[in-house]
Amino acid sequence: LVRRELHRLGYRYRVNFAPVPGVRRTADIVFTRQRIAVLIDGCFWHRCPIHYVEPKTRTEFWAAKIAGNVARDDETRARFEAAGWTVLRFWEHEDPGDVVSALVEAVGFPGQPSRTPLT
Ligand SMILES: [Zn+2]
Predict the structure, then answer these.
(1) Burial level of 25, CB count in 10 A (0-12/13-18/19+)?
(2) How many A from CA of 61 to the centre of ligand 1?
(3) Is 30 in contact with 38 (CB distance < 8 Å)?
(4) Could you read off the pLDDT of 42-73 as tens digits, one per residue?
(5) Residues with beta carbon < 5 A to ion ligand 1?
(6) In sequence order, which residues have a C-beta less than 8 Å from that of residue 112 and are 6 or more positions away?
(7) Ligand 1 centroid – CA 115 distance (Å)
């Protein structure tokens, strides 16, 4: 929904794109010119403070799995930022309109739609 609305507003961006050469981590939405990487994290997989509920079975497995995801999230952010990127993270539970507003603020107004596709 966020991507569709951004596109409707005239923004162009990469999707599931690894912005930093040599770092095999992708961001959900990438504004290459502005060097902004957007991550929209799932409430379960990334341990949202509001919605994460510990599974009732295989608790040790899940605790380790989710902790690994969270550590990886922090590392991804650090590696992007070390390469000069701005990282914006949102939760999947956030209102798509609010996310779009925050991104419009961060990215600025969209340029004229490109006549040639991005390479
Ligand atoms: Zn949540």
Answers:
(1) middle
(2) 21
(3) yes
(4) 999 999 999 999 999 999 999 999 999 999 99
(5) 43, 48, 50-51, 91, 93
(6) 10
(7) 38
DSSP character at residue 58 = S
CA-to-CA dists, residue 88 to 25, 29, 55, 81, 85, angstroms: 15, 10, 28, 11, 10
In the sheet with 86-91, reading across from the earlier edge strand, the strands are 14-17, 27-31, 36-41, 86-91
How far from 37 is each of 51, 53, 57, 67, 77, CA to CA, in Å? Answer: 24, 28, 35, 22, 9
Ligand 1 center to 44 CA (angstroms): 7
pLDDT digit string, tens, across residues 79-106: 999 999 999 999 999 999 999 999 999 9
